[in-house]
Amino acid sequence: MPEPAAPRLILVLGDQLTPDIAALKAGDPARDLVVMAEVMTEATYVRHHPKKIAFLFAAMRRHAEALRRAGWRVAYARLDDPDNAQSIPGELLRHAGAEGAQTVLATEPGEWRLIQALQALPLEVTILPDDRFFCSGAEFARWAEGRKALRMEWFYREMRRRTGYLMAGREPVGGRWNYDSENRKPAAPDLFRQAPPRFDADALTEEVLDLVEARFGDHFGDLRPFTHATDRAGALRLLRHFIDHALPEFGPYQDAMLSDDGVLNHSLLSPYINAGLLSAREVCDAAQAAFDAGRVPIQSAEGFIRQILGWREFVRGVYFLEGPDYPRRNVLRHDRALPPLYWGAPTRMNCLAHAVRQTQQTAHAHHIQRLMVTGNFALLAGVDPHQVHEWYLEVYDDAYEWVEAPNTVGMSQFADGGVVGSKPYVSSGAYIDRMSDYCGACHYRVKDRSGPRACPFNLLYWAFLDRHRDRFAANPRMAQIYRNWDRMEAGHRTTVLAEAGAFLARLDAGEPV
Ligand code: FAD
Ligand code: DLZ
Ligand code: SF4
């Protein structure tokens, strides 16, 4: 009889919760041991929102059970287990010792720090590409090679051709690649939208909530009410609800913001896709099927598929192409500390108060709140982009560095010098006023361009452009803005810059602004 082959360890991380993950597909249930662990290092390398920790721990526990039912041997460490080594490498070493295992099969983690930690293990570690994505790292690198600039739009067209989504042969369905110009409608407050399903906590989730409350209750964010789905069945219900009720008008309202509705026509699917409870492919397939059945117009189907097939794949490609130093980039040399208002300190700026409160309560804000409210303000105020990056990584339930860093450091803070976007996403208060109902209830007056009640975005916008003139004035997409600034009366320009400086001084002094 030949000796049975030594067991291998199969690592399944908290954001790899699908039986279709590469390491499981390469493994053998008769031989290998699946290792899953709730560990302090992952829960605290930034102080994640308690809802995010609870969501992942509950979903991990259910996934471990599902793998056992499917015939796998699973070593699952709960956070409070006395033997828990409290780190992913530590747990692998512990089980390697106990099992006499020398080999680890892992699916590529979504953060450089964990890839490096696995590579440093004194074990034979095979890191397999994460094939949940439409585009592999190698394919993205090939696409990027030799290009002067990486632009999402060109990448996206390539992906449409390659996958066939919304294509008629080699041409886009409807004759256009992008319907953005028909979107961007402000939301009407009286528009009826059916709220997405909310999920009651069962005994397993309640146990996790008690644990998270006890161990991470001091992290920023409200743990309860907790209404996240924590298994695939729940995530599929959310997908179905979105396709039936919200997708038809997703396109027109994707940039809108409303005080009483933090969801609008958005899907809320990002935590589930990123953690593995839904696949990007099945989500795009569902949108395509609804379009084919005539239930969704092209501008909504295209707008939605672009977010996943275009942006999501593009930022992943950028993260791995640019390397581990990416989150540290700071080409604009911004160094202001992140203001306390990001942690809920009082502010009279209604848009920011709203976005932060919603984030605290739900661990979610939609794209335009992230980009044009919290992100826009941090950029205009010159906040250190690494602190901004850590904030986004902490507070959102869908945040992992591969997706968060290019969105924050790149798209939102322009700290990568234009790898993700060709110009900074900055705006005065006028944009926020057009797309939301925030300004009417604000202490500041959005129409005031200077003076004691002038909207701070109006002051900081021009001060930012003036401060970074050398970098941006030559950008053809920004030349007109600089011409507008130069045409303003010199006295007005001086006043705006002085008032912007005074506002930032109050911010730095910790005065409520
Ligand atoms: P929808 O509006 O319904 O969009 C559908 C799906 O498209 C999302 O579920 C998501 O999977 C994908 N998507 C949309 N936009 C992007 C994008 N720019 N990049 C990648 N995927 C996208 N998204 C994350 O998943 N994790 C993050 O940590 C994250 N951090 C962000 C930080 C900043 C500063 C900004 C501006 C954006 C960030 N995003 C992040 C992108 C986007 O805001 C969220 O994906 C979106 O708000 C999630 O809500 P939703 O599922 O309702 O999205
Ligand atoms: C985000 C997170 C948290 C809070 N906790 C765990 C954990 O205890 N165990 C685990 O395996 N994964 C966790 N995760 C997800 C990881 O941080 C994630 O896999 C890496 O950041 C790579 O994307
Ligand atoms: Fe925000 Fe300015 Fe509008 Fe107030 S007036 S809500 S600060 S954009």
Can you tell me the CATH class of the largest domain?
Mainly Alpha
Mean pLDDT: 97
Known CATH architecture of the largest domain:
Orthogonal Bundle
Identify low-pLDDT runs. none
Structure, described:
By secondary structure, the protein is mainly alpha-helical. It folds into three domains: 120 residues, 3-Layer(aba) Sandwich (Rossmann fold); 153 residues, Serine Threonine Protein Phosphatase 5, Tetratricopeptide repeat (Alpha Horseshoe); 169 residues, DNA Cyclobutane Dipyrimidine Photolyase, subunit A, domain 3 (Orthogonal Bundle). 48% of the residues lie in helices and 5% in strands. The strands form two sheets. Strands 3-2-1-4-5 form a five-stranded parallel β-sheet, with helices on both faces. A hairpin with a 2-residue loop joins β6 and β7. α15 packs across α19. The radius of gyration is 24 Å and the shape is globular. The relative contact order is 0.10. The site of iron/sulfur cluster has 14 residues, from α14, α18 and α19.
